[in-house]
From TrEMBL:
Transmembrane segments: none
Domain (Glycosyltransferase subfamily 4-like N-terminal): residue spans on this chain: 14-177
SUPFAM superfamilies to which the protein is assigned, alphabetical: UDP-Glycosyltransferase/glycogen phosphorylase
A Gene Ontology molecular function term of the record: hexosyltransferase activity
Protein name: Glycosyltransferase involved in cell wall bisynthesis
Cross-referenced InterPro entries: Glyco_trans_1 (IPR001296), Glyco_trans_4-like_N (IPR028098), Glycosyltransferase_grp1 (IPR050194)
Pfam families in alphabetical order: Glyco_transf_4, Glycos_transf_1
Glycosyl transferase family domain boundaries: 185-345
Signal peptide: none
């Protein structure tokens, strides 16, 4: 089986889509499944399995790039590669290009739904765009044989908005990288948080990630516990300077981290906080659990499907800083609860290997390819 993958975001960008793609590529390679990536061009060299195209940053979501694909180059590449299936991970220029090629040449197509752009419109006071966004999403996804969602929550959202041919492609966690043994007391000392309870945030630093709520709750917690508590913000984004102003003075800003360096940051912290109510999945929640941290997350979006309140984490009412502060306070004072959440979080992650997740995805691929072949055979018989 040969898979052509189209995406408007890819390495070196750091986000959930890129992380998923990198893991998917490793799993496809381990199975001997041929693949080719069509993605925006960044300031680095592409490898032989990638086709890169000039791109511009996308308004409201700079991690996605508005690529300007060379249609002739794509047609030449795909005519040589001869894919059995085209998978569009994003809905913009690259995704549209893959979809159109598939329709023109009779190749079955899948799409992925990875970002709730209508919620972003609310955050940026552009609610008038919500209806046009959903109209576009219906136009794009309903042309595919199947649309993949990371959670049941996202799937239900699509169904409510007229996108019905859906299936689940969840996300896994690399427990060989993210694990408690990565904890480093030397790293804590170098960051100046030795001897303090450290609350960690990892992700894009932007308003739609509810960073304003994290800032308010962190200040409330600092007012209660003073030097007993510290905060680490790992990531970058348009809200970073505002965040520097609003977070308590004992906050460390590390910038983007990845790989083993990121894994050590997770394991060397004490509590993970995911304030965002807009996640379609929440990869960072799994990374934190696997690293041996108790997690706190908003009871909304994809995070709701990962955290069972009081079992493998704590949830708070979305965009409610008082409720978030309450959760953070509980984990300042209740060691037995912390140990309970850590134990269950680690157990939860052990059941979510990328191998198992991609096994399910490959089955979806095979289903779409075989269903397309059966459909073509039936049409051929009818016309004979």
């Amino acid at each position: 089986m040969r898979i052509a993958i189209f995406t408007d975001t890819f390495t070196p960008q750091i986000n959930g889509v890129t992380n998923t793609l990198n893991q998917l590529i490793r799993q496809l390679e381990s199975r001997g499944i041929e693949h080719k990536i069509f993605a925006p061009k960044y300031d680095h060299e592409a490898d032989h399995q990638e086709e890169r195209f000039y791109s511009l940053k996308l308004f409201l979501y700079p991690e996605c790039r508005l690529a300007l694909p060379n249609i002739f180059r794509i047609h030449d590449s795909l005519s040589k590669f001869k894919p059995d299936l085209i998978h569009s991970f994003t809905e913009f220029n690259m995704g549209i290009t893959g979809l159109r090629y598939g329709k023109k040449h009779g190749i079955p197509t899948l799409s992925s739904y990875t970002t709730n752009f209508t919620q972003y419109a609310d955050y940026y006071k552009m609610s008038m765009l919500k209806q046009p966004i959903w109209e576009y999403m219906r136009w794009f996804h309903n042309q595919n044989e199947l649309t993949l969602c990371a959670t049941d929550e996202a799937r239900k959202l699509l169904h409510r908005n007229g996108i019905h041919r859906t299936a689940i492609f969840s996300r896994g966690i690399d427990t060989n990288r993210f694990k408690p043994i990565q904890r480093s007391e030397e790293l804590r000392r170098s960051l100046g948080v030795d001897g303090q309870k450290v609350f960690l945030y990892v992700g894009r630093v932007s308003f739609e990630k509810d960073m304003d709520i994290l800032c308010k709750s962190s200040r409330q917690l600092q007012s209660l516990y003073g030097d007993k508590v510290a905060f680490i913000v790992t990531g970058d984004g348009p809200y970073l300077e505002k965040c520097r102003q609003l977070m308590p003075g004992n906050t460390v800003f590390t910038g983007f981290k990845m790989g083993d360096e990121l894994a050590r940051l997770y394991a060397s912290s004490d509590v993970f906080v995911c304030p965002s109510s807009t996640e379609t999945f929440g990869n960072v929640v799994l990374e934190a659990m696997a690293s041996g941290l108790p997690v706190i997350g908003a009871d909304a979006g994809g995070v709701r499907n990962l955290i069972k309140d009081g079992q493998n984490g704590l949830t708070f009412k979305a965009r409610d800083e008082e409720d978030l502060t309450r959760c953070m306070t509980r984990l300042m004072e209740n060691e037995s609860l912390i140990n309970h959440l850590i134990k269950n979080g680690l157990s939860f992650c052990r059941s979510r290997s990328w191998k198992t997740i991609v096994d399910g995805l490959v089955q979806q691929y095979q289903y779409v390819v075989e269903n397309d072949a059966s459909s073509k055979s039936a049409k051929s018989s009818q016309s004979a």
